[in-house]
Amino acid sequence: MQYPLTLSFKILAIASQIYVNDANGQSQFYVKQKILKLKEAVKVYADSQQTELIYQIEADRIIDFSAKYTITDQSGASIGSIKRQGARSLWRAHYDILDTNDQVIYTISEENAWIKVMDGLMREIPIVGLLGGYFFNPTYLVKGHTDNTVMRVAKQPSFLESSFKITEESPLDESQEVHIVLSVLMMLLLERNRG
């Protein structure tokens, strides 16, 4: 993939949808979250025409704060999963990226929890709250076992839509890259629903 990747949430959609483009503007993924499902389900397509389903992400249980979301490829084989770290994520978002043996290989955490607090407070103020998305933009860090940052996910200033940029901080092989990017997409869907 050519970095930075740009993630754009579709405005005014009933179900959450994300367009993922690379640095050259080429579509990498189109993500669509299923609505009205007791168990979280996300489909990842090669493009926005939804002609080729390439990955699926599904929760292992019905509406749970610490659910594990398994990522499968076209053939249904698991490539890994992502799991929110329960109570630890109340203050600062914290997720574990797991391999197929449920071993933690990477973590995603919010760089500065105060940004979420300030954004939440500002959103409560009528009219002024619309500007929260422009001034308070969280950044998430993907780190390996040695606490080295391998990817950075930063929300871009915007008024009505959500837009993120993913930059690669350390070289990764293609399978690691895809696993991390899909985990980041699921994390962003969960954090967006959380507020």
Task: Give a written overview of the molecule.
The model has no long low-confidence stretch (mean pLDDT 84). The longest helix has 21 residues. The radius of gyration is 16 Å and the shape is globular. The chain has 195 residues and is of the alpha+beta class. A twelve-stranded antiparallel β-barrel has the order 1-2-3-4-5-6-7-8-9-10-11-12. Strand 5 and strand 6 form a beta hairpin. Helix content is 18%, strand content 37%. The protein contains three helices and twelve strands.
The shape, in one word, is globular
Helix content: 10-25%
* Overall mean confidence score, pLDDT: 84
Radius of gyration: 16 Å
Number of helices: 3
What does the main sheet amount to?
12 strands, antiparallel, barrel
Strand percentage, roughly?
35-45%
Concise synopsis of the structure shown:
This protein has 195 residues and is of the alpha+beta class. 25% of the residues are buried.
Fill in the keyword field for this structure.
single chain, 195 residues, alpha+beta, 12-stranded antiparallel β-barrel, 12 strands, 18% helix, 37% strand, globular
